[in-house]
Automatic annotation (TrEMBL):
InterPro entries: OxRdtase_Mopterin-bd_dom (IPR000572), OxRdtase_Mopterin-bd_sf (IPR036374)
PANTHER family: OXIDOREDUCTASE MOLYBDOPTERIN-BINDING DOMAIN-CONTAINING PROTEIN, PROTEIN-METHIONINE-SULFOXIDE REDUCTASE
Oxidoreductase molybdopterin-binding domain residues: 33-178
Classification via Pfam families: Oxidored_molyb
Identification of the protein by name: Sulfite oxidase-like oxidoreductase
Length: 198
């Protein structure tokens, strides 16, 4: 497999590839369970928990400032892809639309299909995080999370929920799907936080 689909980073790239990762020549698609079928006209994004309940349409998101992002992408299954070019909306811009209780310290990301993953609010509300709807100037494919996915470049890719459709704000940490099934609570690639130690 190494050589055909993956390669070791070149010397000039080694400082951008965490320990134990290999560079992919493509953009692998890894999904647990079936790919959800989403009617774009009925798509909605909800906010609840320790936040004022709100519902947004895709048009609401598209009305926000759109930006180009270039970010490296690291999967817990040991592949990395450098210089991924996305188009999307900054998380920080979206946060200006909602009212969050100061007691909220954690978030549960929810997706069509029932997937969940948890993230601390300080890991979520960062300038470099965004909701993506294009990759390499093309609309996201369904397999990559269309119509919109979250991208959190500083954590392993399972925290970048595909098909995202809601944020539940929480006072205390609750574990999402992979976290309940043995993955690390946070998932920081440079610390190799792949799996839970308990």
């Amino acid at each position: 497999m190494l050589g055909k689909f993956f390669q070791k980073p070149q010397k000039e790239e080694s400082d951008r590839v965490p320990q134990g990762q290999y560079l992919t020549k493509g953009f692998p698609v890894l999904t647990y369970g079936a790919t959800p079928k989403i009617n774009i006209d009925e798509w909605e994004f909800k906010v609840w928990g320790l936040a004022k309940p709100a519902t947004f349409t895709l048009s609401d998101f598209m009305a926000l400032p759109q930006h180009q992002f270039t970010a490296d992408f690291h999967c817990v299954t040991r592949w990395s892809k450098l210089h991924v070019k996305w188009t999307g909306i900054k998380v920080t811009d979206f946060m200006k639309l909602i009212s969050v209780d100061p007691k909220a310290a954690h978030i549960m990301e929810h997706s069509y299909g029932g997937y969940t993953t948890n993230i601390a609010i300080e890991d979520f509300v960062r300038e470099e995080n965004f909701f993506a709807f294009k990759v390499f100037d093309e609309d996201l494919s369904t397999e990559h999370g269309a119509p919109m996915r979250l991208v959190v470049p500083h954590l392993y890719a399972w925290k970048s929920a595909k098909w995202i459709n809601g944020l539940e704000f929480l006072e205390r940490e609750e574990l999402g799907f992979w976290e309940r099934n043995g993955y690390h609570r946070r998932g920081e690639p440079w610390a190799e936080e792949r799996y839970s130690s308990f």
